[in-house]
């Protein structure tokens, strides 16, 4: 029997033909020795599976599994199902979760799993970032509202399976990733994992995310996440905060015939929300283009989040993401 890998990097994909080669290339270049990759394909129809077959023939550390139950037509939680299937087939006791649409520098896996390999932790979170020089205006405008930074330096204290390390034992004790919803499996896993252990946040372990958003794409992604929160019944305080922002904006608009002071106060508040997390990263050669886009998205965010969260609460139904819509 082959010796287990030191770390298994897992992900699940569906119709990711445009990004899968870059993902495998960056994972194959990891500096961490004795690593394997387990990729579950949920029944892609765009050539992703054929690309994976070609890559696996050249990369002996890449193990690929095709499971057509890991899409929305067969499971309410296809992403979670794919991750669970990948972890079931991992030879290592240490798991690093990655995501299609992301790339990883050579030290990513080593930094993410170092606390686990040293037995200092059993759960680590790396977060994600975008490169401002290569991103679209709307990538940058939407970044803080989607939990993404504009620099890979430092720590990102948010849960995302774009960069998540865990032990296989913790995964079993939590009960795996909950297969109940299209999105939010990482949020639910994080809530349950924190009842059992304390996460660590290793610096420099962020995934580089490249969504290439248009305005409609960024609005759609935020809406998908908010709908998921409503379906799952999580992040209710976030809903309340955004609802209060909607009320404040509307009140300032109504008051404009008499006074512009509330509108100025709201503008100042939105400037704070727009730049509180990444003001240094936002100030670059594209600053003049970025500022109005970021402010506009900040003003739109409470309306998008509130509407879609409430829709999720009422309907208990997710909209499909683009990958599942193509199956």
Strand order of the largest sheet: 3-2-1-4-8-6
DSSP E strands, number = 9
What is the SS-derived class?
Answer: alpha/beta
Q: Classify the fold: give the CATH topology of the largest domain.
A: Spore Coat Polysaccharide Biosynthesis Protein SpsA, Chain A
The low-pLDDT segments are: none
Rg, Cα atoms, Å: 20 Å
Percentage of residues in strands = 5-15%
SSE order: EHEHEHEEHEEHEHHEHHHHHH
The helical percent reads: 40-55%
Notes on the structure:
There is one protein chain. With 327 residues, the chain is of the alpha/beta class. It folds into two domains: 7-209, Spore Coat Polysaccharide Biosynthesis Protein SpsA, Chain A (Alpha-Beta Complex), CATH 3.90.550; 215-325, no CATH class. 47% of the residues lie in helices and 11% in strands. It is built from 13 helices and nine strands. The protein has helices spanning 20-28, 48-58, 78-88, 108-117, 137-142, 168-174, 185-193, 215-232, 236-255, 261-275, 279-282, 287-315, 322-325, and strands at 7-13, 35-41, 62-66, 94-97, 102-103, 123-125, 128-129, 164-167, 207-209. The chain has a six-stranded mixed beta sheet with strand order 3-2-1-4-8-6, with helices on both faces. Strands 5-9-7 form a three-stranded mixed beta sheet. Helix 8 (215-232) packs parallel to helix 12 and helix 10 (261-275) crosses helix 12 (287-315). The two termini are 37 Å apart. The relative contact order is 0.14.
């Amino acid at each position: 029997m082959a010796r287990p890998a030191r770390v298994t990097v897992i992900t699940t994909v569906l119709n990711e033909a445009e990004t899968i080669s870059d993902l495998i290339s960056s994972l194959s270049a990891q500096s961490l020795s004795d690593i394997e990759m387990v990729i579950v394909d949920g029944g892609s129809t765009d050539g992703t599976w054929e690309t994976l077959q070609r890559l696996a023939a050249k990369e002996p550390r890449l193990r690929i599994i095709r499971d057509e139950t890991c899409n929305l037509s067969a499971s309410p939680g296809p992403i979670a199902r794919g991750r669970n299937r990948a972890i079931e087939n991992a030879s290592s006791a240490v798991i690093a979760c990655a995501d299609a649409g992301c790339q990883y520098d050579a030290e990513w896996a080593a930094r993410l799993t170092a606390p686990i390999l040293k037995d200092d932790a059993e759960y680590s979170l790396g977060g994600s970032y975008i490169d401002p020089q290569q991103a679209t205006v709307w990538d940058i405008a939407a970044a803080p509202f989607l939990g993404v930074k504009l620099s890979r330096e430092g720590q990102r204290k948010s849960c995302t399976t774009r960069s998540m390390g865990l032990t296989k034992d913790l995964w079993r004790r939590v009960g795996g990733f909950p297969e109940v919803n299209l999105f939010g499996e990482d949020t639910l896993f994080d809530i349950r994992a924190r009842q059992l252990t304390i996460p660590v946040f290793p610096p420099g372990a962020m995934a580089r995310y490249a969504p290439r958003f248009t305005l409609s794409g960024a609005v759609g992604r935020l809406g998908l996440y908010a709908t998921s929160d409503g379906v799952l019944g999580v992040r209710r305080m976030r809903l309340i905060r955004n609802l209060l922002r909607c009320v404040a904006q509307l009140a300032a608009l109504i008051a404009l015939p008499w006074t512009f002071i509330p509108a100025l106060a709201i503008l100042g508040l939105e400037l704070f929300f727009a730049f509180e997390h990444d003001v240094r990263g936002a100030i670059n050669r594209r600053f003049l283009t970025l500022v109005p886009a970021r402010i506009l998205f900040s003003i739109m965010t409470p309306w998008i989040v509130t509407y879609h969260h409430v829709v999720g609460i009422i309907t208990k139904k997710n909209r499909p993401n683009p990958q599942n819509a193509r199956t």
